[in-house]
Amino acid sequence: MAKTGVLETIPCAVTKAAELKKELEKLVKAILGEEDYRVEVTDEAMRVLSGLKELKFKKSLKMVDDTVVPEEFKCPISREIMGDPVVLATGQTYDLPFIQRWLNEGHRTCPRTQQVLPHTILTPNHLVRDMISQWCKERGIELPKPVKDVDDEVHTDADRSHLKSLLEKMSSSLSDQKEAAKELRLLTKRMPSFRALFSDSTDAIPRLINPLSPENPLAIPLLIESVKSGTIETRSNAAAALFSLSALDSNKLIIGKSGALKPLIDLLEEGHPLAMKDAASAIFNLCLVLENKGRAVREGAVRVILKKIMDCILVDELLAILAMLASHQKAVEEMGELGAVHCLLGITRESSSERNKENCAAILYTICLNDYTKWRDIREEERCQWYTFKTRGEWDITRQEES
Does the domain spanning 157-299 belong to CATH 1.25.10? Predict the structure, then answer.
């Protein structure tokens, strides 16, 4: 009987909506057809629109209420459909705001199983989220909006102990190292709260480097993730760690293939004084290998480096990288397009560093071999100075005094 009662209300709502639509149509015609319509007409139109909106809202609520929501889609705490399902350490899934509130109140047990939690890290349950999304879409129900940020996240001693145990495993057996590296990478990639913990740990980076060897580069992906995000100190330390590891030629290839160059170039481009030199040093070391030169060029290294040089930032270090990249055809083409000739001639004229002049000469020589029209740019600069090309690829700069 209850079900019949619900069904009986539907025609009433449909009839009411139809009446309101007809009324709204008349009011809109009156507004459009009259030059000097009364204010009361617009007020009435707004009232009708409000009524239609209310009917639509009630219909949406009725659909949710009358639809049996699968138990696995409900949060065990709120008993409502989940908007942001996350997995607790016990494997149980909860809606993020409710389980976070539970943890913030000081509880350290699973609400459903009452098991003591080894840590309070929450992992997004993307599978359940996708299933809920599909279920809502099929029934025309609006998907509950997830909470984007939980401002009052807390880090407990259990969380810190969990991080510590994972880092300790990095100095243990090979199987423990693999397991710990995999979990650390997963947690720091998916969980902002764990990234924050990782960033706050002063010995995290040194512990990651300790077990590394050419045959066992387990933590390199994690170091790359650390370059991408975290505090500037953590990102700088991770870049410095990659620089140290790239001293071995075998590691240069591994690090390059693992995708380190893009985040290092991004870190350089951001321009933080603390991190730029570490990023530049790592890029230089990695680009000593031919394969990595191509990767660096594809990731936009030429544009970023040339811009920094033009801004007079880390000129010595970045000129050395640019000279190294000049052996790559695409890099040379980019330098020509980005106005490198004028910039390099200026450095040659003004710099007191012989090494910088040599690097500029080598780059200019390569650019001109690639594009003979660039000689015109050089000839324009000769209004004040004469440049004499040497066979070994250097330039002598001499001023011609007026007699």
Answer: yes
What share of the chain in percent tops pLDDT 70?
A: 73
Full DSSP string of 113-177 = T-PBPS----EE-HHHHHHHHHHHHHTTPPPPPPPS--TT----HHHHHHHHHHHHHTTS-HHHH
pTM of the model: 0.50
User: Burial letters for 241-271: b for 16+ Cβ neighbours within 10 Å, e otherwise?
Assistant: bbbebbebeebbbbbbeebbbbbbbbbbbee
Residue spans per domain, the chain = 2-66, 72-138, 157-299
Q: What is the mean pLDDT of residues 209-226?
A: 66
Provide mean pLDDT across the span 144-160.
55
Same fold, 72-138 and 157-299: no
Round the average pLDDT of the chain to a whole number and report it. Answer: 77
Under 8 Å CB-to-CB from 78, ≥6 apart: which residues? Answer: 95, 98
Classified by CATH at the fold level, domain 72-138 comes out as Herpes Virus-1 (3.30.40)
Give the β-pairing of 85-87 and 93-95.
antiparallel
| CA quadruple 108, 109, 115, 119: dihedral sign | negative
